[in-house]
Design brief:
6 strands; four-stranded antiparallel β-sheet; two-stranded antiparallel sheet; 114 residues; 3 helices
Amino acid sequence: MPPDEESDSKLVESIENFLETGKDWEKIATPIESLTVQKIPKTRTREARVMVHINPVMYGKKIKRNGLLIGQADILDAFIRVLGLEETKDLVYVVEQVNKKVAAKKKSGKMLEW
């Protein structure tokens, strides 16, 4: 749901100013730790724009070097829908287990002797 334009006019003004004055790829913090706004540079086919950069924090550190950039509400809704599926959680759990087995095999593998 879009924010109320009157109550968020300061936010709109701030983001528009950042779009005009920010450097390409620059990020600006928000009050929400896992969210920043990032300026995406102009290309030959489109003007510069801003996107929400989502990079959750766990154990005091950002989860990924590069988070998820979203600039449209319908795309955000699609990600929310897919990430909320029980099958997604099940698949990630299985992938995690497989990766742990691979890491364990690597640790117990052959070692050079000096």
